[in-house]
Each structure stands twice: as C-alpha cells, then as structure tokens.
Amino acid sequence: MPKVLEGAAIAAAIKQEVAEEVKKLAARGVRPGLAAVLVGHVPASEIYVKSKVQACAELGLYSDLITPPDTVTTEEMLDLVHSLNDRDDIDGILIQLPLPKQVDAKVLLDAVVPEKDVDGFHPVNAGRLQAGRPALAPCTPAGMIEILKRSNLPISGQHAVVVGRSDIVGKPAAMLLLHENATVTICHSKTRDLGAVTRQADILVAAIGRPGFITPEMVKPGATIIDVGINRLNTREEFDRYFAGNEKRLAAFEKRGSTIVGDVHPAAYQVSGAYTPVPGGVGLLTIAMLMSNTVRAAKMRRGL
Ligand SMILES: NC(=O)c1ccc[n+]([C@@H]2O[C@H](COP(=O)([O-])OP(=O)(O)OC[C@H]3O[C@@H](n4cnc5c(N)ncnc54)[C@H](OP(=O)(O)O)[C@@H]3O)[C@@H](O)[C@H]2O)c1
Fold first, then answer.
1. Quick check: helix, strand or coil at residue 44?
2. What backbone phi and psi angles, to 5 degrees, belong to 47?
3. Atom of ligand 1 at shortest distance to CA of 190?
4. What is the pLDDT of residue 274?
5. Distance in Å, CA 87 to ligand 1 centroid
6. What is the model's pTM?
C-alpha cells in the first residue's frame, strides 16, 4: 500500500515552529506583520485570504487586511503597494490573485520590494533562488520540499520529474529540488512522449492544472508523487471519471455539490510508493509556508 503524505501534521508542525519564533521575536520587541490585499469579491480568494489572516492571529503575527473595490485601477494599487513598502509594521505583502482585468498584475507584483515579497514571485527572489542565495521562495513549492524532508523521503540523487513550468509552481519546484541535489527534468505542454519521461521519475511533481492528467501507466511503481493540482469537479459525470465506487467521497460530493481532484488520477496514486492526497496534501502547506516566509522576511529585514 502506498504511504499517504498527509499535509495536516506537517503544516501544524511548521506553524508551531513559526509561533515559537514569533514569541522569541516578541521578546526583542519585533512583531512580524503581513498585509493581505484582497480586491473585490472573488469567493475562493475571500476564503484563502480569510485563512491567511486567521493563521496570522493564531501564530501571533500582526495582519492588516486591505480590501480595495473591484473597480480599483493599476495606479491606485501601485500607490497602495508603495505605501505598504514604506510601512515599518509590515514585513510581508500578499496580493491575492486573480486581480480584476484592468489591473496589471505583473507591474504590481514587481512593485513589491523583494524584501517583503513573501509569495516569492518577484524576479529578484526568483533570481536569488536560482543563484542559490538566501531568497523568499514561493510557498507551494517550498511546502512540497518540507513534505519530502519531514517524511524522510530521499531527494538527493533521485530523478525528479516536474510536469509544469509556471513561475509560481513548476520552475521554483524544479529549482528547489535541484538545490536538494535531485536530478531534475522539467516537462511542459510541448514535451514529446510525456509518459516515457514521467515513468523515469523517482519523484513525480504534477503542477499542470488538468484534472487527473497523470494516469497509472505514466508512473514508475514505487515513485513518490507530489500532486500540486487543485481542480474542481461539479458534475456527477466528472466525479465518476475519477472517483467511481468511492462511497465516502460521493457522500461528500452530494452534500457540497462539488469535490476537488488533483492533476494525478487517483488510480495512479496506487502505483506509487507515497503520494500527497488532494485535498489534504501540498495545499495545506501553502499557508504554513506563507507564515514562515513572513517571519523570515521580518528577521532578514532587521538583520536578525
Ligand atoms: N496551494 C496550492 O496547493 C496550489 C498553488 C498554486 C497552484 N496550484 C495548482 O497547481 C496546478 C498548476 O498551477 P500553475 O499555476 O502552475 O498552472 P499554470 O500556470 O497553468 O501552468 C501549468 C503548466 O502545466 C503545463 N501543461 C499544461 N498542459 C500540459 C500537458 N498536456 N502536458 C504537459 N504539461 C502541460 C503547462 O505547460 P506550458 O508552459 O507549455 O503551457 C504549464 O507549464 C493547478 O491545478 C493549480 O490549481 C495549487
């Protein structure tokens, strides 16, 4: 039976460590602070940001929730970012994506000073990460590394195949695995014979954004699967494609009217030696790593 790499216990351990660090900083008169910018009313974003602000409260961080209307302009958002860059009580700036169409997200993310870029999206942090310098790394890939390390799964010398090359998941995941001495292959939509490549993976990272895309024959028996994907299924037909016969899941689906599936088909998990479930795997690490990055940013900015 494959081992299920549950994110909850690992996220809780990281949060506990962050809370201890916050206490130590408090004794030195420092309270790390996170500004969470939530534009408009995107229901999923509201849930994510609420969880982030709640995590700050639980761990003793200061948070400031800023909610511009969905009519906000790029210029107004830039003014906001500049004011947050200048505030001494703010160590991390989080701009929840997606932003309304009229706002230039790239311009905005680049305007966040790298020292407060706790999402690790700024090109300076991407460059520092690549160069192996101290950097604020994107939270989801950083969480993936924590899962592997804290589950005592080997990384060094392993062949890691990352499917997906986005700036926020695929590329930083590949770079972090490389720094841990994995041999890394990055795949994308133009990769030829994807299955032939993924079958070579000791560690297979799926960050594709396509439900159940990795099928059993694409997985080497015994491999470790990190499933980053979050895809919502709304119809019974879609549900049956991935979870037919799973009565527990069906009950939850019928109660909520939807469920989520990763980028890996649940049948493919059964070929693996260990896998992160969806939900309950990598996703749970993202907020813990955001808290960890905010404390790190607070310390780095003060030279602590
Ligand atoms: N907290 C979390 O757990 C968390 C955080 C972020 C994202 N996610 C999830 O992770 C997944 C990936 O997110 P993302 O932001 O990285 O997505 P993205 O920006 O859409 O990137 C998807 C990547 O997958 C590649 N791809 C698409 N179709 C492919 C195919 N047929 N074969 C091989 N590669 C293919 C794309 O290749 P090209 O570059 O060639 O187009 C691209 O590099 C999504 O399900 C998202 O919801 C979860």
1. helix
2. -65, -45
3. 40
4. 98
5. 34
6. 0.96
